[in-house]
Amino acid sequence: MTRILEVSKLNKSFGGVTVAREIDFTLETGAMHCLIGPNGAGKSSFFRLLLGEHAPDSGTITFCGEDITTLRSFQRIRRGISVKFQVPGIFKALSVRQNLEVAFQHHLHGASLGDTVRRVLEFTNLTGAVTTPAGELSHGQQQWLEIGMAVGVEPKLLLLDEPTAGMSPDETRKTGDMLHDLNGRGITILAVEHDMAFVQQIAHSVTVLHMGAIFAEGSIAEMTAHPGVQEIYLGAADD
Amino acid sequence: MSSLNSPDTTARPPARRGPRKWLARLEGPQTMGHGPAFWAAAVLVILAAAAYPQFANDFTVGNVAYFMVWTFMAMGLGVVWGYGGALSFGQTAFFGLAGYGYGVVSINIGSAFGLTWLALVLAVALGGAFALLIGYFMFYGRIKGVFIGIVTLSVTLVLETFMAQTAGPQWRIGDARLNGFNGMSGMPPLTVPWPGGDILLYSGTALYYVLLAMVVLVYLGLRMLLNAPFGNVLVAIRENPERTEMLGYDIRFYQMLAFGLGGALAGLSGALYTAWGQYITPSSMGLTAAALPIVWVAVGGRRDITATLLGSLLVIAGFQSLTIYGSQYALVVMGGLLVFTVLVTPDGLVATAMDRIGRLSRKMRR
Q1: Model confidence pLDDT, tens digit, residues A100-156
Q2: CB–CB of B29 and A119 under 8 A?
Q3: Domains: count for chain A
Q4: What pTM was computed for the model?
Q5: Do B247 and A102 touch (CB under 8 A)?
Q6: Which residue range forms the structural domain that includes residue A185?
Q7: Closest Cα of chain A to B254: distance in Å?
Q8: By C-alpha distance, which of B102, B52, B93, B56 is closest to B277?
Q9: B229 with A149: Cβ contact below 8 A
Q10: Is residue A238's pLDDT more than 80?
Q11: Is residue A158 situated within a structural domain?
Q12: What is the span of the domain harbouring residue B182?
């Protein structure tokens, strides 16, 4: 398998707070991988470093063999990284259809744009809400809309920051099915998630972050059995 | 690998191309008003406007032409602020710069052979280019929110201060004296070459028709642009800039282009104003002048170009009527109108009225 993402010796601090400490991380093409860790572990900051929203103090990020460490966010997206934020990053005043059209129109036009919008509407179960202002959708539907927007840009790697936050159990299960479907279509998935049941539903492997550094990596069974991981979730590792 | 983006095999109407595609964009998600009823009403309004000079005296027609001069700046601010979400407090910088630009060029090249139109085009280009430059430094410097208002207000006040100190004879460009606080005068009005003598467009019916045609063209052009992908991205940036960038758009570039367009339209107003009155002063870039376009656009409705146009015309006409009774009184009313709009109809009086009418007509059709 080829590596889609390689992160080497990544460091980032804000004043006295270190959010990334010597992070070495690799992701194989086609993987479904989860990042877990307690609040403040640096998971979202790691995503923001991958997306170019923060510039690292040192270290490199390589995507599909290209060093993207100094690229701006939109340039990383154009190379095949896409993201779904923790708080749904949708255009609330625009209709569902307009949200999707804005998402896809820089690489699709005319009939192919309409076709893709229709397919994504079906995929995200939003066909019946096509003219609804996105701000009026339920929380779960807003999460799905953003997943639809994120996959419509034809990513190779999809970053998901707590994709099931605030969802009902049924919505969470549907979201897991959706991600398996996307992974089956060739999209590599890296998700930050707290819900361990959901992690077990979707992930092949897990990385545990703690205080900005990688604490442990392995299969879900290994991580749930790892005494250190249990301790940091209970706060004992700081003692 | 199957993909969400794979081609659809079901039969679909062919995509529109070329001019038809642009005409289709006269209607769309970013502009209010669609369907035969809207366009029939629009045609009626234009016909009524075209017939208006037949029923009014030259002085009144000239006044309405003067109102139309300002609508380009208002529509430009609507694009920058209402659609793009960047509140510019300094559209008057581009208005004034283009106004002086028209004066300098037209005084130096004269008005023969319709060269005043060249002066107009160059002045608009100057306003647009300066806006692109300011926009480049603002948006590529990641200035956002209220700081855009502060920077743009500073730019217009600096220009006003600079032009006010250009009284000495050394402040001239060719034959054109800048003339400090007293302002520049003596530039020719717009002219149309005509056998037996040029037609001068400085007041009355001829200027009225030229301006009416320009307002209609700019309005329709903006409708098409705002319903095109450019307009969709602009609105997306207003709604959620981070998400828009994370969809692969260089939002700085779009914001700069919109700001440049707004500057060019403000420049068009400035050049036409100078050609209309053959006079431009630094106070056209002052604080009061800078605040007024914000009132017009906010009161009309900044998020829809039709509301911006109609609202601006109404507010400017009202303001002019009030100034007959004293300018300070008129400014107080403008301030009150702005406060009322912000508190009661934050989307703008005209936009809210248009929205209500639209809902009512849909309800009646059902």
Answers
A1: 999 998 888 778 888 889 999 999 999 999 989 999 999 889 999 999 999 888 899
A2: no
A3: 1
A4: 0.90
A5: yes
A6: 3-90+154-238
A7: 13
A8: B102
A9: no
A10: no
A11: yes
A12: 61-283
